[in-house]
Amino acid sequence: MNEGIMHDDTPSTSGAPQAPVRTGGTIRLTMAQALVRYLAAQRVASEDGTSVEPLFGGVFAIFGHGNVAGIGEALYQHRDALPTFRAHNEQAMAHSAIAYAKAHFRRRMMAVTTSIGPGATNLLTAAALAHVNRLPVLLLPGDIFVSRAPDPVLQQLEDFNDGGVSANDAFKPLSRYFDRIVQPAQLLSALPRAIRVLTDAASCGPVTLALPQDVQAQAWDFPEDFFTPRVVRIHAPAPRSDDLDAACARLRHAKRPLIVAGGGVLYSRAADALHRFASAHGVPVAETQAGKSSLAWNDPLNAGALGVTGSPAANALAHDADCVLALGTRLQDFTTGSNTLFTQAEVIAINANGFDALKHRGFVVEADVRLALDALAGPLQGWHAERAWTARAHKLAASWRDTVQTLTHAPQRDAVLPYEGDVIGAVQRSSARSPADDIVVCAAGTLPAELHKLWRAGRPGAYHVEYGYSCMGYEIAGGLGVKLARPEREVIVILGDGSYLMMNSEIASSVMLGAKLIVVVLDNRGFGCINRLQQACGGAPFNNLLDDCAHGPEGVPRIDFAAHARALGAQAEHARNLAELEVALQRARAAKGTYVISIDTDPARTTEDGGWWWEVAVPEVSTRTEVRDARAKYDAQLAARAAPSAPPSPPQGADQD
């Protein structure tokens, strides 16, 4: 235990800040000092369970007039017990904090603090991302004066109908718990509630504590034992016996079961339990974006990615399954093919969050995935899927692994630009050790589809793709958070030029913190993914690729991503082809600091194998023949979905978002 959190390191001398005054069983602190001291005192069991470590890995902070004098001073006092990291963009630093928690499978986390105005509202996108992905992050935006004496202060948003509203009220629908601390004593209830939400498998998500700047500076006599270091338990619900009995009865009737592994498998540390269950009962496994890496890529029963970005093996099995065991997944539209992929199957949903489990009219087991799988082992002893079904799953999975090998090792012609699959293959071949030692980070565009199909994840957490919110700009910031969580691993961020241009500032942060990233930028000259989707819906190429955008007399820019990255302090180079990329990757792996490599890629090519229908509404009326034709296809898919006895067949070669 770090007992330093119980004492100030600032001596009481003339002109210096005064140390807290202790009176009996209380300690006089400002609200901000008490908040920081409490966060620093929280502990959690280490991953192996043999020791304890801080629950909070640190605080990302960009200071402004709403937090520099209050929480900024408190963070300085406790900088040894609770490190503070400076970032360059508020949204980005929150992404880093969220990625840190995801890389720790939600057992450790970070806090984020900003000023009261644009700094606070810059966090809103990240708050929504954390909410959608069920990931813990503590947001501490500064707020306006409770006293209202100097109103309106700089950056204050005034509501014409409600004097108590500030810009921070926008966090309410984006937070799993929201509180505004208007008196220091409120921390006694607000902080334990915040920690409970952040460490509860069912309610996990972003917590926002709005901190008015005058209240941050107010002092109060806090009970001294409030700051005693405590080991926090991660709360996870155990399954009810009647739910288990009902689930077992349904599974015993299943002949062709399929497991859908979602992020809850990783967060509950159920990878080993999943492997044991699938192997014992001969059940194939398909992985969602959040759940990929739950099972090793070369496990005989791993059929690969599921859904719109899925493999042909997983989607064929989902199409024919009579029972789907959905583990820790929200069953969103990319997983279910907009609710067309396994309409014929009975769904059993095991999820710590009942809201997330209540999808597809399935049977709900509200429980932690690992606890539920362990509890099912005894009652299901002797049950096995049809042998022919298991054999088919083995054959399809093996065939898909062979296809992945072919797709990622295709010979290249000098005159042909590479596409995402080629780059993915080059990255994985570049590993001097096993590719399982790498962690790939991505978020939006074409790359999540290609990575979902083609990345070979050898251990839990080797695949870190944010696709619940599909947030462009998460990639580099997220990579920084992953590296802070897993400094011993090679963290490889792969992203498109569009995402790079949206948010790249944390390259400078990674250099400053000595948190090495390898960043591979695929430059297809625009938003290639949405350009393809636009045309698939009958639209003309418009406002996506740079050449199709409005531009001035000088034309569209030629962007030198390597030069830009060097300006931010990274080492960088441009690879003219795949051969140069492979050599550059070796230099990047040998480098001590962040290394950025750019390469030109084809905006039109994608992996044609696999995929499934995804519902994107097409206009009913248009002057374009292409749009009317696309609408006719859309209407046919809608009709097929309305007839559950005949679910749609997978479209071959369809473009994916």
Say which CATH homologous superfamily of the largest domain is assigned.
Answer: Thiamin diphosphate (ThDP)-binding fold, Pyr/PP domains
Number of strands: 24
Number of domains: 3
Main β-sheet, spatial strand arrangement: 6-5-7-8-10-9
Family: Belongs to the TPP enzyme family.
Protein name: 3D-(3,5/4)-trihydroxycyclohexane-1,2-dione acylhydrolase (Decyclizing)
Organism: Paraburkholderia youngii
Keywords: Hydrolase, Thiamine pyrophosphate
Describe the 3D structure.
Residues 1-22, 635-657 are annotated as: Disordered. There is one protein chain. The chain has 657 residues and is of the alpha/beta class. It has three domains: 3-232, Thiamin diphosphate (ThDP)-binding fold, Pyr/PP domains (Rossmann fold, 3-Layer(aba) Sandwich), CATH 3.40.50; 246-400, 3-Layer(aba) Sandwich (Rossmann fold); 408-600, Thiamin diphosphate (ThDP)-binding fold, Pyr/PP domains (Rossmann fold), CATH 3.40.50.970. 35% of the residues lie in helices and 18% in strands. The protein is built from 24 helices and 24 strands. Strands 6-5-7-8-10-9 form a six-stranded parallel beta sheet, with helices on both faces. Helix 2 links the parallel strand 5 (56-61) and strand 6. Mean pLDDT is 93; it is low at 1-17 and 646-657.
